[in-house]
Amino acid sequence: MSLFSKLFGGKRETAVLTHPMDLHAFTDRYAAALRAAWPQARLSIAHGALAADTRIEWSLDDGFQATHFLGNSYQRYLDAPELLEDVFADQVAAARELQRRFAADGAEPGDADNAMILPVLKTRGWHEVALQQARSIGNGNRIAFIVEPLVGDLVLTYVEDKPDSMNFLSPDEAQRRGLDAQTLRERALSNLSRFLPELDVQGNGGRYAARLDRNYDASMVLLFEHWRERVQVRGEPVFAIAARDEVLVCGSEDRESLDSLRDIAEEISRTSAYNLSRTLYVFREDGLHVLVD
Description:
The protein has eight helices and 13 strands. The protein has helices spanning 3-8, 23-37, 71-79, 84-104, 124-136, 171-176, 181-192, 255-271, and strands at residues 42-46, 55-59, 65-69, 117-123, 148-151, 154-162, 165-168, 200-204, 207-211, 237-243, 246-251, 280-284, 287-290. The model is unreliable at 10-17 (pLDDT under 50). The strands form three sheets. It has a six-stranded antiparallel beta sheet. Strands 4, 5, 6 and 7 form a four-stranded antiparallel beta sheet that branches. It has a three-stranded antiparallel beta sheet with strand order 1-2-3. It has three domains: 3-104, no CATH class; 113-194, no CATH class; 199-290, no CATH class.
């Protein structure tokens, strides 16, 4: 049984498909839906080996940019092919909301150099290992990435995710670009918000999982205020951020779900190749805090 099923008490029902569209055909249909909504948009399709790696990047002349990872949308289609147009409509509606917020903020056209800087969650243990590796090759305490304390044993770092490469942003490079700590974080979160249309929040009955692209799923907790209305829980929202691709949510007043969440976070942190924290975190107005029983 999957970890998702352990938390939610059952497997999702999957529609039986005779001749479903393959991912390439689905991607073309998705791009056509975007072009119909924004005829002036510039679109670029990047096909990956897996559905989760396939994405559409597009931009408008006013500086608005968005990235749509297709993994979750394609799975929604496979689960319910009769809802194909609803899948596209939902993504276009979410993109329109992002565009509306962009215009309301009076944002200036984004500078291309910083457009793909994104926040990534790591652990203090990962940071220590990285420092040890740096010392072992004679770099002392100098390291090629930025690390900021976040909460509990989680830290925040930044990558530059280009179509042909992904690299950590170094302190020297951030300084060269004039990005201090606050400006860097604001820019990275703004870039991450382009992925909100692709965030798939699954579940019900007070138990949820947030899915994105298996790279930035955990990072989406940094934008929780933008998708909080999609989870209905008793009490305060409590997160298990046990791996970069495993984000689970329940309520602080739901003891049964909390117990399940704690067990699953422990299991994921032991077994996942992308493990993060076994700690549970509670979301409050001022951000994430370690959950204290």
